[in-house]
Write a structure and sequence with these properties.
Radius of gyration: 16 Å
Order of helices and strands: EHEEEEEEEHHE
CATH superfamily: Peptide deformylase
Oligomer: single chain
Strand content: 25-35%
Number of strands: 9
Strand order of the largest sheet: 2-3-4-7-8
Number of domains: 1
Low-confidence stretches: none
Length: 188
């Protein structure tokens, strides 16, 4: 297994919809193993194939909830249904999220509190997860990556302006930028 470079915002691979996986073969299995290694090294709770430069509809996730239950898996060619997004003021603590493709930055974003994920695992079996809370947020975030959408694209005012300033300050926003977990320190 190999830790892969994570693509930083501005590269076309992050802003282009990914393509369906035609078959689960050794290439896909190796990619998923490397993605899991990269996600853990980053550290992160999810990672989509476009974030490592691969335009395929795959994401991995690994998150431990407050009760100590580990939620982890691989989603190949996923489908996602979400409950209506609630209205109201953002809670900047509970609703903030970050992204490994915009490392070191966090901004509040309203997401649905419930999502149903249907996907294929590495064995080729279809499965379904009815997720709530943070796990539902993880699924929505990673699924967006497969459609070429970053969480920064969904931010409301004034946070949309803040992320633009942060990206500009770090000279990101152009193709070819990446960072390597365990080697580069882009968290601050």
């Amino acid at each position: 297994m190999t830790v892969l470079p994570i693509i930083i915002t501005g590269d076309p691979v992050l802003h282009t919809p990914a393509e369906e996986v035609a078959q689960i073969d050794d290439h896909v299995r190796a990619l998923v193993a490397d993605m899991i290694e990269t996600m853990i090294a980053a550290p992160g709770v999810g990672l989509a194939a476009p974030q490592v430069g691969v335009r395929e509809r795959i994401f991995v996730f690994r998150w431990e909830d407050e009760d100590g239950a580990l939620h982890e898996g691989t989603a190949i060619n996923p489908e996602l249904w979400i409950a209506p997004i609630p209205l109201g003021a953002l809670d900047e603590d509970d609703e903030s999220e970050g992204c490994l493709s915009i490392p070191g930055e966090r901004f509040p974003l309203r997401r649905s509190d419930r999502a149903i994920l249907r996907a294929t695992d590495l064995d080729g079996s279809r499965y379904e997860i009815d997720a709530e809370g943070w796990l539902a947020r993880i699924f929505q975030h990673e699924y967006d990556h497969l459609d070429g959408v970053l969480y920064a694209d969904r931010l409301a005012h004034p946070h949309d302006k803040e992320v633009v300033r942060a990206v500009k300050k770090r000279s990101w926003g152009s193709p070819g930028r990446s960072w390597l977990p365990g080697v580069d320190n882009l968290e601050g």
